[in-house]
Protein backbone atom coordinates (compact mmCIF):
# COMPACT_ATOMS: atom_id res chain seq x y z
CA UNK A 1 0.00 0.00 0.00
CA UNK A 2 1.40 3.41 -0.98
CA UNK A 3 0.34 6.36 1.17
CA UNK A 4 1.29 10.01 0.78
CA UNK A 5 3.93 11.16 3.25
CA UNK A 6 2.46 14.42 4.39
CA UNK A 7 4.33 17.45 5.72
CA UNK A 8 2.62 20.23 7.64
CA UNK A 9 1.88 23.37 5.61
CA UNK A 10 4.47 25.20 7.69
CA UNK A 11 7.12 22.59 6.85
CA UNK A 12 6.08 22.64 3.19
CA UNK A 13 6.52 26.42 3.03
CA UNK A 14 9.95 26.27 4.66
CA UNK A 15 11.14 23.40 2.46
CA UNK A 16 9.89 25.09 -0.71
CA UNK A 17 11.65 28.31 0.22
CA UNK A 18 14.88 26.42 1.12
CA UNK A 19 14.92 24.67 -2.24
CA UNK A 20 14.96 28.03 -3.98
CA UNK A 21 17.25 29.94 -1.61
CA UNK A 22 19.43 31.17 -4.47
CA UNK A 23 16.49 32.54 -6.50
CA UNK A 24 17.42 35.93 -7.96
CA UNK A 25 14.76 38.41 -9.04
CA UNK A 26 15.53 40.69 -11.99
CA UNK A 27 14.94 44.42 -11.53
CA UNK A 28 13.44 46.94 -13.94
CA UNK A 29 12.78 50.69 -13.73
CA UNK A 30 9.21 51.81 -14.38
CA UNK A 31 7.30 55.07 -14.26
CA UNK A 32 5.11 55.92 -11.26
CA UNK A 33 2.00 55.50 -13.44
CA UNK A 34 2.84 51.81 -13.89
CA UNK A 35 3.78 51.18 -10.28
CA UNK A 36 0.48 50.23 -8.65
CA UNK A 37 0.68 46.71 -7.20
CA UNK A 38 4.34 46.27 -8.22
CA UNK A 39 6.96 45.19 -5.68
CA UNK A 40 9.67 47.65 -4.70
CA UNK A 41 13.11 46.20 -5.43
CA UNK A 42 15.23 48.60 -3.34
CA UNK A 43 14.91 50.58 -0.10
CA UNK A 44 13.94 54.18 -0.85
CA UNK A 45 15.72 56.98 1.04
CA UNK A 46 14.43 60.50 0.60
CA UNK A 47 16.75 62.87 -1.31
CA UNK A 48 14.91 65.89 0.15
CA UNK A 49 12.96 67.18 3.12
CA UNK A 50 9.18 67.04 2.61
CA UNK A 51 8.06 69.75 2.81
CA UNK A 52 11.25 71.55 1.89
CA UNK A 53 10.23 74.77 3.72
CA UNK A 54 7.90 75.68 6.61
CA UNK A 55 4.33 75.91 5.25
CA UNK A 56 1.00 77.18 6.49
CA UNK A 57 -1.80 74.60 6.68
CA UNK A 58 -4.53 77.28 6.70
CA UNK A 59 -5.42 80.58 5.03
CA UNK A 60 -4.47 83.18 7.63
CA UNK A 61 -1.88 85.50 9.13
CA UNK A 62 1.59 84.27 10.05
CA UNK A 63 2.75 85.67 13.39
CA UNK A 64 5.27 85.21 16.18
CA UNK A 65 3.03 82.95 18.33
CA UNK A 66 4.22 84.53 21.58
CA UNK A 67 2.98 87.91 20.44
CA UNK A 68 -0.61 86.51 20.25
CA UNK A 69 -0.69 85.28 23.87
CA UNK A 70 -3.88 86.49 25.55
CA UNK A 71 -5.66 87.59 22.34
CA UNK A 72 -9.39 86.93 22.77
CA UNK A 73 -12.76 88.19 21.52
CA UNK A 74 -13.01 90.42 24.58
CA UNK A 75 -9.44 91.66 24.29
CA UNK A 76 -8.21 91.38 20.65
CA UNK A 77 -4.62 92.12 19.68
CA UNK A 78 -3.78 94.69 16.99
CA UNK A 79 -1.22 93.69 14.38
CA UNK A 80 0.47 95.50 11.47
CA UNK A 81 0.23 93.64 8.16
CA UNK A 82 3.72 93.63 6.58
CA UNK A 83 2.67 91.97 3.32
CA UNK A 84 1.34 88.86 1.60
CA UNK A 85 3.07 85.60 0.67
CA UNK A 86 2.42 84.40 -2.88
CA UNK A 87 1.60 80.72 -3.41
CA UNK A 88 4.44 78.69 -4.90
CA UNK A 89 6.96 81.49 -4.37
CA UNK A 90 9.73 82.09 -1.89
CA UNK A 91 9.34 85.15 0.35
CA UNK A 92 11.84 87.58 1.81
CA UNK A 93 9.28 89.05 4.19
CA UNK A 94 10.01 89.05 7.93
CA UNK A 95 7.62 89.19 10.87
CA UNK A 96 8.47 90.83 14.21
CA UNK A 97 6.43 91.15 17.45
CA UNK A 98 3.11 92.84 16.74
CA UNK A 99 3.41 92.17 13.01
CA UNK A 100 1.72 89.66 10.74
CA UNK A 101 1.78 88.57 7.11
CA UNK A 102 -1.01 87.03 5.02
CA UNK A 103 -0.24 83.42 3.94
CA UNK A 104 -2.48 81.11 1.85
CA UNK A 105 -2.84 77.39 2.73
CA UNK A 106 0.42 75.76 1.65
CA UNK A 107 2.28 79.07 1.35
CA UNK A 108 5.75 79.66 2.81
CA UNK A 109 5.97 81.04 6.35
CA UNK A 110 7.95 84.30 6.44
CA UNK A 111 11.11 84.55 8.56
CA UNK A 112 10.37 85.12 12.23
CA UNK A 113 6.85 83.59 12.20
CA UNK A 114 6.07 80.31 13.93
CA UNK A 115 2.27 80.12 13.84
CA UNK A 116 -0.69 81.09 11.65
CA UNK A 117 -3.97 82.61 12.86
CA UNK A 118 -6.91 81.50 10.69
CA UNK A 119 -8.63 84.38 8.86
CA UNK A 120 -11.88 83.51 10.69
CA UNK A 121 -10.27 84.73 13.94
CA UNK A 122 -9.15 88.08 12.48
CA UNK A 123 -10.74 91.25 11.23
CA UNK A 124 -9.24 93.82 8.89
CA UNK A 125 -9.37 97.33 10.37
CA UNK A 126 -7.66 99.00 7.40
CA UNK A 127 -5.20 97.97 4.62
CA UNK A 128 -2.33 97.69 7.06
CA UNK A 129 -3.92 96.61 10.35
CA UNK A 130 -5.91 93.61 11.58
CA UNK A 131 -7.14 92.56 14.99
CA UNK A 132 -6.68 88.97 16.18
CA UNK A 133 -9.35 87.37 18.37
CA UNK A 134 -7.60 84.10 19.16
CA UNK A 135 -3.92 83.43 19.84
CA UNK A 136 -1.93 80.50 18.42
CA UNK A 137 0.54 78.12 20.06
CA UNK A 138 4.05 77.63 18.56
CA UNK A 139 3.82 75.66 15.25
CA UNK A 140 0.01 75.80 15.27
CA UNK A 141 -1.43 75.56 11.72
CA UNK A 142 2.05 74.92 10.25
CA UNK A 143 3.75 71.97 8.55
CA UNK A 144 7.44 72.34 9.31
CA UNK A 145 10.36 71.65 7.00
CA UNK A 146 10.99 67.86 7.06
CA UNK A 147 8.00 67.20 9.30
CA UNK A 148 6.54 64.65 6.85
CA UNK A 149 9.86 63.22 5.58
CA UNK A 150 13.44 64.06 6.60
CA UNK A 151 16.21 64.17 4.01
CA UNK A 152 18.03 60.81 4.08
CA UNK A 153 15.20 59.04 5.91
CA UNK A 154 14.27 55.50 4.85
CA UNK A 155 10.71 55.94 3.65
CA UNK A 156 9.71 52.78 1.76
CA UNK A 157 11.26 49.35 2.19
CA UNK A 158 12.28 46.87 -0.45
CA UNK A 159 9.54 44.22 -0.76
CA UNK A 160 6.64 46.62 -0.39
CA UNK A 161 3.66 46.02 -2.69
CA UNK A 162 3.10 49.58 -3.86
CA UNK A 163 -0.23 51.26 -3.09
CA UNK A 164 -1.53 54.68 -4.11
CA UNK A 165 -0.18 56.39 -0.99
CA UNK A 166 3.30 54.89 -1.50
CA UNK A 167 3.39 56.02 -5.12
CA UNK A 168 2.20 59.51 -4.13
CA UNK A 169 5.01 59.76 -1.59
CA UNK A 170 7.51 58.68 -4.28
CA UNK A 171 6.21 61.52 -6.44
CA UNK A 172 6.51 63.88 -3.47
CA UNK A 173 10.20 63.00 -3.11
CA UNK A 174 10.80 63.73 -6.80
CA UNK A 175 11.09 60.18 -8.15
CA UNK A 176 10.12 59.76 -11.77
CA UNK A 177 11.11 56.14 -12.23
CA UNK A 178 11.47 53.49 -9.54
CA UNK A 179 13.11 50.06 -9.27
CA UNK A 180 10.66 47.13 -9.05
CA UNK A 181 11.06 43.40 -9.50
CA UNK A 182 10.35 42.18 -13.01
CA UNK A 183 7.07 40.29 -13.05
CA UNK A 184 7.46 36.57 -12.40
CA UNK A 185 6.59 34.64 -15.53
CA UNK A 186 4.26 31.73 -14.85
CA UNK A 187 2.82 29.07 -17.16
CA UNK A 188 -0.44 27.27 -16.32
CA UNK A 189 -1.30 23.72 -17.39
CA UNK A 190 -4.64 22.07 -16.63
CA UNK A 191 -4.48 18.31 -17.04
CA UNK A 192 -7.31 15.88 -17.56
CA UNK A 193 -8.81 13.83 -20.42
CA UNK A 194 -12.18 15.26 -19.40
CA UNK A 195 -11.27 18.98 -19.44
CA UNK A 196 -12.49 21.18 -22.27
CA UNK A 197 -12.17 24.91 -22.84
CA UNK A 198 -15.04 27.36 -23.31
CA UNK A 199 -14.64 27.31 -27.09
CA UNK A 200 -14.98 23.49 -27.32
CA UNK A 201 -18.20 21.58 -27.79
CA UNK A 202 -18.82 19.54 -24.66
CA UNK A 203 -19.45 15.79 -24.88
CA UNK A 204 -21.03 13.72 -22.12
CA UNK A 205 -18.51 12.95 -19.39
CA UNK A 206 -16.45 16.08 -20.05
CA UNK A 207 -16.28 19.14 -17.85
CA UNK A 208 -15.29 22.71 -18.52
CA UNK A 209 -11.96 24.08 -17.38
CA UNK A 210 -12.09 26.26 -14.26
CA UNK A 211 -8.56 26.06 -12.86
CA UNK A 212 -6.79 27.77 -15.76
CA UNK A 213 -8.94 30.84 -15.25
CA UNK A 214 -9.02 30.97 -11.46
CA UNK A 215 -5.23 30.47 -11.25
CA UNK A 216 -4.49 33.00 -14.00
CA UNK A 217 -6.60 35.61 -12.21
CA UNK A 218 -4.89 34.92 -8.88
CA UNK A 219 -1.42 35.17 -10.48
CA UNK A 220 -2.23 38.43 -12.23
CA UNK A 221 -3.59 39.88 -8.98
CA UNK A 222 -0.33 38.87 -7.32
CA UNK A 223 1.70 40.79 -9.87
CA UNK A 224 2.80 37.86 -12.06
CA UNK A 225 2.72 37.55 -15.81
CA UNK A 226 0.94 34.51 -17.24
CA UNK A 227 3.21 33.37 -20.08
CA UNK A 228 1.07 30.58 -21.53
CA UNK A 229 -1.84 28.28 -20.71
CA UNK A 230 -2.78 24.83 -22.00
CA UNK A 231 -5.10 21.93 -21.35
CA UNK A 232 -3.21 18.63 -21.61
CA UNK A 233 -4.48 15.04 -21.61
CA UNK A 234 -3.43 12.67 -18.80
CA UNK A 235 -0.46 11.27 -20.69
CA UNK A 236 3.03 11.40 -19.30
CA UNK A 237 4.80 12.26 -22.54
CA UNK A 238 2.34 15.01 -23.48
CA UNK A 239 2.58 16.57 -20.03
CA UNK A 240 6.39 16.39 -19.98
CA UNK A 241 6.57 18.09 -23.35
CA UNK A 242 4.21 20.88 -22.29
CA UNK A 243 5.91 21.54 -18.92
CA UNK A 244 9.28 21.63 -20.64
CA UNK A 245 8.00 24.00 -23.35
CA UNK A 246 6.49 26.32 -20.72
CA UNK A 247 9.65 26.27 -18.58
CA UNK A 248 11.60 27.71 -21.52
CA UNK A 249 9.57 30.92 -21.28
CA UNK A 250 8.65 30.94 -17.57
CA UNK A 251 10.15 31.10 -14.10
CA UNK A 252 7.51 28.80 -12.73
CA UNK A 253 4.81 26.38 -13.95
CA UNK A 254 1.56 25.51 -12.20
CA UNK A 255 0.03 22.17 -13.19
CA UNK A 256 -3.44 21.37 -11.88
CA UNK A 257 -4.86 17.85 -11.75
CA UNK A 258 -3.13 14.49 -11.81
CA UNK A 259 -1.61 15.07 -8.39
CA UNK A 260 -3.19 12.11 -6.65
CA UNK A 261 -2.46 8.37 -6.69
CA UNK A 262 -4.64 7.22 -9.59
CA UNK A 263 -3.29 5.39 -12.63
CA UNK A 264 -3.71 8.54 -14.74
CA UNK A 265 -2.07 10.86 -12.21
CA UNK A 266 1.17 11.57 -14.03
CA UNK A 267 2.23 15.02 -12.74
CA UNK A 268 4.78 13.66 -10.26
CA UNK A 269 6.46 11.38 -12.83
CA UNK A 270 6.52 14.16 -15.41
CA UNK A 271 8.33 16.53 -13.04
CA UNK A 272 10.76 13.83 -11.88
CA UNK A 273 11.66 12.84 -15.42
CA UNK A 274 12.23 16.42 -16.56
CA UNK A 275 15.29 17.16 -14.48
CA UNK A 276 17.05 17.18 -11.13
CA UNK A 277 16.18 17.40 -8.27
CA UNK A 278 12.52 16.80 -9.25
CA UNK A 279 9.68 16.42 -6.78
CA UNK A 280 10.60 17.21 -3.17
CA UNK A 281 7.09 17.40 -1.70
CA UNK A 282 4.14 15.13 -2.45
CA UNK A 283 1.42 15.43 0.19
CA UNK A 284 0.68 18.20 2.65
CA UNK A 285 -1.47 17.70 5.77
CA UNK A 286 -4.13 20.19 4.69
CA UNK A 287 -7.81 20.05 3.80
CA UNK A 288 -8.46 20.62 1.00
CA UNK A 289 -5.29 20.11 -0.97
CA UNK A 290 -3.62 17.01 0.46
CA UNK A 291 -2.07 15.59 -2.74
CA UNK A 292 -0.15 18.81 -3.54
CA UNK A 293 3.20 18.37 -5.32
CA UNK A 294 6.17 20.74 -5.31
CA UNK A 295 9.19 20.19 -7.51
CA UNK A 296 12.25 21.81 -8.96
CA UNK A 297 13.36 21.26 -12.53
CA UNK A 298 16.88 22.64 -12.88
CA UNK A 299 16.41 26.06 -11.23
CA UNK A 300 12.71 26.51 -11.86
CA UNK A 301 9.67 25.76 -9.71
CA UNK A 302 6.86 23.42 -10.73
CA UNK A 303 3.78 23.11 -8.53
CA UNK A 304 1.35 20.22 -8.96
CA UNK A 305 -1.94 21.48 -7.56
CA UNK A 306 -4.86 19.15 -6.88
CA UNK A 307 -7.41 19.15 -9.70
CA UNK A 308 -10.46 19.90 -7.57
CA UNK A 309 -11.13 23.59 -8.27
CA UNK A 310 -11.44 24.60 -4.61
CA UNK A 311 -8.33 22.63 -3.65
CA UNK A 312 -6.29 24.13 -6.49
CA UNK A 313 -7.18 27.70 -5.61
CA UNK A 314 -6.86 27.22 -1.84
CA UNK A 315 -3.39 25.69 -2.25
CA UNK A 316 -2.51 28.58 -4.53
CA UNK A 317 -3.68 31.06 -1.87
CA UNK A 318 -1.86 29.41 1.01
CA UNK A 319 1.29 27.91 -0.52
CA UNK A 320 2.02 29.32 -3.98
CA UNK A 321 1.31 32.93 -3.02
CA UNK A 322 3.46 32.58 0.07
CA UNK A 323 6.32 31.28 -2.14
CA UNK A 324 5.87 34.08 -4.69
CA UNK A 325 6.03 36.59 -1.84
CA UNK A 326 8.96 34.88 -0.10
CA UNK A 327 11.25 34.95 -3.15
CA UNK A 328 10.49 38.65 -3.62
CA UNK A 329 10.92 39.45 0.08
CA UNK A 330 7.42 40.90 0.26
CA UNK A 331 6.95 42.84 3.47
CA UNK A 332 3.30 43.93 3.08
CA UNK A 333 0.99 42.52 5.79
CA UNK A 334 -1.86 40.19 4.81
CA UNK A 335 -5.32 41.65 5.37
CA UNK A 336 -7.61 39.81 7.78
CA UNK A 337 -10.71 40.60 9.81
CA UNK A 338 -11.25 39.42 13.38
CA UNK A 339 -14.69 37.91 13.85
CA UNK A 340 -16.65 35.54 16.05
CA UNK A 341 -17.44 32.01 14.85
CA UNK A 342 -21.17 31.27 14.94
CA UNK A 343 -21.06 27.45 15.08
CA UNK A 344 -18.83 24.63 16.28
CA UNK A 345 -16.55 23.29 13.55
CA UNK A 346 -14.93 19.97 14.46
CA UNK A 347 -11.53 19.18 12.96
CA UNK A 348 -9.60 16.26 14.30
CA UNK A 349 -7.94 14.45 11.43
CA UNK A 350 -4.50 15.97 11.92
CA UNK A 351 -4.75 18.25 8.88
CA UNK A 352 -4.79 22.04 8.75
CA UNK A 353 -8.30 23.00 7.58
CA UNK A 354 -9.20 25.95 5.41
CA UNK A 355 -12.86 26.78 5.96
CA UNK A 356 -14.59 29.17 3.55
CA UNK A 357 -16.61 31.75 5.46
CA UNK A 358 -18.80 34.79 5.22
CA UNK A 359 -19.03 37.67 7.66
CA UNK A 360 -22.21 39.43 8.75
CA UNK A 361 -22.18 42.50 10.94
CA UNK A 362 -24.76 42.20 13.75
CA UNK A 363 -25.01 44.15 17.00
CA UNK A 364 -21.54 45.60 16.47
CA UNK A 365 -20.07 42.13 16.15
CA UNK A 366 -18.55 40.55 13.08
CA UNK A 367 -20.19 37.15 12.96
CA UNK A 368 -18.43 34.45 10.94
CA UNK A 369 -20.53 31.86 9.08
CA UNK A 370 -18.82 28.85 7.48
CA UNK A 371 -19.85 27.62 4.03
CA UNK A 372 -20.14 23.90 3.53
CA UNK A 373 -19.46 22.07 0.32
CA UNK A 374 -17.14 19.71 -1.52
CA UNK A 375 -13.84 20.70 -3.07
CA UNK A 376 -15.35 20.19 -6.53
CA UNK A 377 -17.82 23.02 -5.86
CA UNK A 378 -16.08 26.28 -6.68
CA UNK A 379 -19.15 28.39 -5.86
CA UNK A 380 -18.26 27.66 -2.23
CA UNK A 381 -15.48 30.20 -2.83
CA UNK A 382 -17.47 32.64 -4.94
CA UNK A 383 -19.98 32.84 -2.08
CA UNK A 384 -17.35 33.49 0.58
CA UNK A 385 -15.36 36.53 1.65
CA UNK A 386 -12.35 34.64 2.87
CA UNK A 387 -11.24 31.66 4.88
CA UNK A 388 -10.46 30.67 8.45
CA UNK A 389 -7.50 28.43 9.26
CA UNK A 390 -8.03 25.66 11.78
CA UNK A 391 -4.53 24.59 12.72
CA UNK A 392 -3.34 21.02 12.47
CA UNK A 393 -3.17 20.46 16.24
CA UNK A 394 -6.45 22.30 16.96
CA UNK A 395 -9.49 20.12 17.61
CA UNK A 396 -11.76 22.54 15.83
CA UNK A 397 -13.28 25.93 16.48
CA UNK A 398 -15.99 26.56 19.07
CA UNK A 399 -19.08 28.70 18.66
CA UNK A 400 -18.24 32.16 20.02
CA UNK A 401 -14.47 31.76 19.50
CA UNK A 402 -12.63 34.73 17.95
CA UNK A 403 -11.18 33.82 14.54
CA UNK A 404 -9.10 35.54 11.88
CA UNK A 405 -10.74 35.66 8.47
CA UNK A 406 -8.13 35.97 5.70
CA UNK A 407 -9.71 37.87 2.85
CA UNK A 408 -9.67 36.76 -0.79
N1 LIG B 1 -7.38 7.08 -3.81
C1 LIG B 1 -7.30 8.40 -3.61
N2 LIG B 1 -8.02 9.19 -4.39
C2 LIG B 1 -7.98 10.53 -4.20
C3 LIG B 1 -7.19 11.06 -3.15
C4 LIG B 1 -6.43 10.19 -2.36
O1 LIG B 1 -5.69 10.60 -1.44
N3 LIG B 1 -6.50 8.86 -2.64
N4 LIG B 1 -7.21 12.41 -2.95
C5 LIG B 1 -8.39 13.08 -3.37
C6 LIG B 1 -8.20 14.48 -3.27
S1 LIG B 1 -8.17 15.14 -1.71
C7 LIG B 1 -8.13 15.30 -4.34
S2 LIG B 1 -8.07 16.99 -4.16
C8 LIG B 1 -8.11 14.77 -5.69
C9 LIG B 1 -6.93 15.39 -6.43
O2 LIG B 1 -6.86 14.73 -7.61
P1 LIG B 1 -5.92 15.12 -8.81
O3 LIG B 1 -5.03 16.25 -8.50
O4 LIG B 1 -5.29 13.88 -9.28
O5 LIG B 1 -6.96 15.73 -9.83
P2 LIG B 1 -7.84 15.02 -10.90
O6 LIG B 1 -8.15 13.61 -10.52
O7 LIG B 1 -7.20 15.25 -12.19
O8 LIG B 1 -9.13 15.89 -10.77
C10 LIG B 1 -9.90 15.92 -9.60
C11 LIG B 1 -11.25 16.55 -9.94
O9 LIG B 1 -11.08 17.88 -10.34
C12 LIG B 1 -11.60 18.09 -11.64
N5 LIG B 1 -10.72 19.02 -12.37
C13 LIG B 1 -9.44 18.79 -12.69
N6 LIG B 1 -8.94 19.82 -13.38
C14 LIG B 1 -9.93 20.72 -13.50
C15 LIG B 1 -10.02 21.99 -14.12
N7 LIG B 1 -8.98 22.54 -14.77
N8 LIG B 1 -11.20 22.64 -14.04
C16 LIG B 1 -12.25 22.09 -13.41
N9 LIG B 1 -12.21 20.89 -12.79
C17 LIG B 1 -11.08 20.20 -12.85
C18 LIG B 1 -11.58 16.73 -12.27
O10 LIG B 1 -12.49 16.63 -13.33
C19 LIG B 1 -11.92 15.85 -11.09
O11 LIG B 1 -13.30 15.84 -10.87
O12 LIG B 1 -7.95 13.41 -5.70
C20 LIG B 1 -8.81 12.72 -4.79
N10 LIG B 1 -8.68 11.33 -5.02
O1 LIG C 1 -8.00 17.55 -0.19
MO1 LIG C 1 -8.68 17.28 -1.80
O2 LIG C 1 -7.68 18.57 -2.06
O3 LIG C 1 -10.13 17.56 -0.99
O4 LIG C 1 -10.18 18.02 -2.12
CATH architecture of the largest domain: 3-Layer(aba) Sandwich
Q: Given the structure, what is the number of helices?
A: 7
Largest sheet: 6 strands, mixed
Please, how many domains? 4
Alpha-beta classification: alpha/beta
β-strand amount: 25-35%
User: pLDDT below 50 for ≥5 consecutive residues: which ranges?
Assistant: none
- Compute the number of strand runs: 28
- CATH topology of the largest domain: the name is Molybdenum Cofactor Biosythetic Enzyme, Chain A
CATH superfamily of the largest domain: MoaB/Mog-like domain
Radius of gyration: 31 Å
Please state the average pLDDT score: 96
Task: Give the strand line-up of the largest sheet.
Answer: 7-4-6-5-9-8
Helix content: 10-25%
CATH class of the largest domain: Alpha Beta
- Quote the distance from N terminus to C terminus: 38 Å
General shape = elongated
Small molecules bound: ligand LQZAQKY5, molybdate ion
Amino acid sequence: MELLKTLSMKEAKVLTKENFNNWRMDIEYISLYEASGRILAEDILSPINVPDFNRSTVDGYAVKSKSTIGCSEGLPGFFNVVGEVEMGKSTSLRVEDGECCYVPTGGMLPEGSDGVVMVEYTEALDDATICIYKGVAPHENCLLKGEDIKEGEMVLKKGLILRGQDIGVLGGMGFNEIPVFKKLRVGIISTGDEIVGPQDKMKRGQIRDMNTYSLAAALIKDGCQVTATAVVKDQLQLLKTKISEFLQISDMVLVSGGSSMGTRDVTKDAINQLGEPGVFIHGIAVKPGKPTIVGKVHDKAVFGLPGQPVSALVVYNVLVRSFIEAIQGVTSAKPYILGEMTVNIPSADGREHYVMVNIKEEENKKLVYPLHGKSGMLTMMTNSLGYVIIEQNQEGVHKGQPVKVYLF
